[in-house]
């Protein structure tokens, strides 16, 4: 799936963001047994918001969820 995402986007910042999210999710799930990927995503988004980082992908996802 990551290969498919890499082919879709040529923006290195977005690829870096996706890779960071993937690694965060893997580490979170490994260190927190019983948690779900949804829990990991929530923690990741809170962490990213705290850093002041943003991603076109996340902005689009938030926009779609708000409808």
Structural account:
This protein has four helices and no strands. It has helices at 2-8, 12-31, 37-51, 56-66. Helix 2 (12-31) packs across helix 3 (37-51). The longest helix has 20 residues, at 12-31. The protein is globular, with a radius of gyration of 13 Å.
List the helices and strands and how they pair.
Layout: H1 2-8, H2 12-31, H3 37-51, H4 56-66
Helix pairs in contact: 2-3
β-strand amount: under 5%
Judged by helices, strands and strand pairing, the structural class is: mainly alpha
The H/E string reads HHHH
- Which word captures the global form? globular
Radius of gyration: 13 Å
Report the uncertain regions. none
- Continuous helix count: 4
Q: How much helix, percentage-wise, in residues?
A: over 70%
Largest sheet: none
Count of DSSP strands: 0
Domain tally: 1
Termini distance?
26 Å
Report mean pLDDT, rounded to a whole number: 78
Keywords:
single chain; 67 residues; mainly alpha
Q: How is this structure best summarized?
A:
By secondary structure, the protein is mainly alpha-helical. The chain has helices spanning 2-8, 12-31, 37-51, 56-66. The chain starts with a helix and ends with a helix.
